[in-house]
Structures are given as C-alpha cells and as structure tokens.
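Hi R.,

Here's the chain you asked about this morning:
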Amino acid sequence: MPIAFERSPRRRTAGALSLAATAILAVSGCSVANTTQSEAANPNTLRIVVPTEPPTLEPCDASLTATGVVVRSNITEPLIERDPNSGDLQPKLATGWTQVEPNLWRLTMASGIKFSNGAPFDARDAAFSIKRTFNGAIGCDVNGYVFDDSKITVSAPDATTVELRTETPDPILPLRLSFIEVVPRTTTDSDKVREPVGTGPYMVDFWDSGQRIALKLNPNYHGASPDYSRVIYQWRAEGSVRAAMITNDEADLATSLGPEDGAGDLGVAYTNNETTALRMQGTDAPLTDRRVREAIDYSIDRDGIVKALFQGLGRPAAQLVAPGVVGYNEQLTPTPYDLAKAKELIDEARADGVPVDRTIRLIGRTGQFPKINETVEAIQYSLSKIGLNVKIEMMDTSGQMQYQMRPFVAGSGPVLLLVQHGNQAGDTQFTVDQYMISDGYQSTFGVADYDSEIRAAEALTGAPRQDALAKVLADEPEKVHQYAYIAHMQAVLAKSAKVAYQPNSATGDEMRLAEMSHATARND
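And the predicted structure, written out as tokens:
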C-alpha cells in the first residue's frame, strides 16, 4: 500500500611541474601512485585520480561531489537522466512519465533489467529507492539538496508502474527524481551502505580504505559494455601531484586541476556548473544598509580576477546560475568595477550614521577552488580602498560550512562569505530555494515580496517558467542584493593521450565511465 513520507528537517593548462610535486617524487624515490605494474600495463584498466577519498559510496549521497563521480550512472542509475549538454530529461530505468493529475505523476518502468547481484529490477525497487531517500534515519544528502518540505506518497500498483502524489502541484518532479539512484528493495533502509548494488555498467570490486577503490564490469548490465573492464580510483590532495601522475603515466584522468598545476598539453579546460559569489549577510550592520552592499558589489574587479588569477578560465558573472540552467538570464551584465561610485556610497552611508568602520569578516574556504586565497586578498584590497575595514578568515570545510548553512553561527557579526554554487539540477528553483528565499538553507535574509515572486515562478512550466525565473534572477539585486556575483568558473581535467573523453558541465559531479574509450577507437 502507498506510504506517505515527509522530508526530514536536515538540509543541508599549461605550466611547469611544481617544485613540491618534484620533491615528493625525488625524496620518496618511488611513484606517487599506488597502481600495480599489472594495472598500469593493462590497456583495459582506467586509472583516475581525484582530490579526496569519497566519504561514502552510498547512492543517496551521490549529490556529494566526491561520491557522485564514482557512483552516479556508473554503479547505480536513476529512473530519469538529465543530459548535461542539452538539459533534456532522458529515460533510464523509467521509460516514460506523465503528469496525469496536477498532483499525480505516473512513471513506467523498463523491463528485462537486472541488478549486479542478479536480482530483477521492477517498480517495487524504484518505489523503495524513493522512500529510502526520504528516510530521516539515514540522512540522505540528496534529500536535503533536491527535495522540499512537502509530503509525497509513493506506490507501485504493479511491476511496471510507480505513482507519486504530491501535496501541491510539482511541475519539476521528474527533474528531482533524476537525482535518486535506484537500489534493490533488499537494501537496508536503516543505515547507509558501503558497497552499493545497482544496475550501472560497473560494480564495486573492492575498497581499500585510504588507498583506492576498484570497479569491475557488471556482468548483468543491460547496455553496451564499456571500453574499460576495470577502473581504479585514487586520491591525492595536491593538484600538482595529480597532474604529475598524468604526465608520468601513473594515471589516465586527473580531476579538479588549476591552470598552474602543470598538466601542460594534457590539460583540458571546460566550463563546469560552478559560480563564485560573495554573500553579504544583511542582518548585521553595516551590511544591513543597502548602499554598503551596493558599494561592495561595485568594488569587485571581476575582469581582473578572471584574467589575472584564473588565467582566463572563467567569465565575469551577473547571476548565480550558469548558462544551460532553466531560468538563466542572458540579458544580465556583470556589475561594473567602479571604486569611485563605491566610495561615494560608503561616504553617504557614513554621513547618515551607518557604522561603516565596523570590522567586517571576509570568510573563505581553504582549497575551495584554485587561487581562492588570492581572490579573497584582491577583494579585501578593493574594499579597503573604499573605506571598509575587512578581516580575512580562511577556514576548512567544516568551519566554513557553519557560516554557509543554517543554523548560522550566532553572534558572528557582519560576514562576507565567499561561496561557490553549482546547480547540478539544471533549474533555477534549486538555486533560489537554497540561496535567495528568506528562509533558504543558505540564505541570510530576504523580503516577502521577492519570496512571493519566487514561489509564483516555480509554479509555472515551459516558456513562462523560463521567463519568470529569469526575472527572479534579474530582480535579486534590486529587491534584496544579498550577493555580489564574481565568475562563472571553468575547470581543468588532465587526460592521458590514450583516453578519449570530452568533459562537460557535469563532469565535476558525475563522470560517466561508459563515455570513456581508448583514443585509438575514436576521436576526442
């Protein structure tokens, strides 16, 4: 029988090889990699080096970058898949979906598919996976990232049909479902799993904690067999070391590199879905004054940051979502760099009694993106030129996230927080619900009129939805002005000449191994 569930409240390249990497190689006298000679010699083994070890391979945590690059569409698969290039939704384990009533969606399941353990897939597995994602005891990251607080009822009336009834009409429910990876209904629903079972082209061979993860082909896979029969993931924190592993033929793919890491001609620059911005906490003076927030926006030299610090890998931003996301507004232009105008606004605020001399904390996350320290210093310098007193604080991830997500640190004072947001879903609703609506999980303040505009836009579909969400993004600086947008980012992936793979906007969150092949088999 159908089960009603409610979301838990938890939300949530060119350049020389660096001296540091060279020293590691020289002092150790051995390889920086842990792949064996037989693995290196096997042309059917794909060796990937990433920045960090996945904290888990739990499919309902696949929205975590370190987990998603291993799990999503490799070990497990969703019911519906989003094309990262076109943004279109495509059938995967579901062959079709229909909104039969305003509050009811019906999905048809594919037949003849088996999990890697040999068990057949049907609608009961799909319904179980959806319910499991909403299990508050597990605390799935996908739950917090993708779904809101509304109640949903899910049922499987027969082996090929899943029905979902929402409390209010949800026009983008299929897009939300694209984030749920399907597991067998025999999977535990009381704890997260270490080695998941799925329907993807690969399955876990072993996980040597702290060293590497190995995947092997799923013998029951329903699609064409990938070129590589085995995949080895390793992790190295230093980008220069990851790049060195490619140039030394100790790895075939290296992710999350900067232009200075030394990948040389093997580096491939691509546009990812990340946008950097400065969030202005408008609950503490002087940031409560709109003129001060406007002045900060005018003080950011976006062109200079992109050209000098990012070496051209990015472009100045005028909104928090990147091209290709529903709602992206191509008419918006970045705020001009105008220190004279900024200083004029600060002087005007000071004359009206605003405490513009109060120390403002500028918080960044160490290692969040290449050249983040220099970016923070450039912003601080510009703000000092207009008369603001700004103190830099670089924090690790756990420390910085206390300021980025609710509940925010009490009594923190005025805070400027450097954030980087990637809209993996492809719809602006996932951005504004988190970052812009008054009570958003990563929003510090807002106004009722803007909240109403957001909710009205989210109820629309098709072209009216695109237009309304584009207006929402255009109105943020006018109605709230919580953000000073900096840049739409680009990333660098180093790739062996033996591998054919074209990275796309989703590569940082999801690398589909089945799309990788031997370079001799096709052109990149």
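The longest helix spans residues 462-479.

Let me know if you need anything else.
M.
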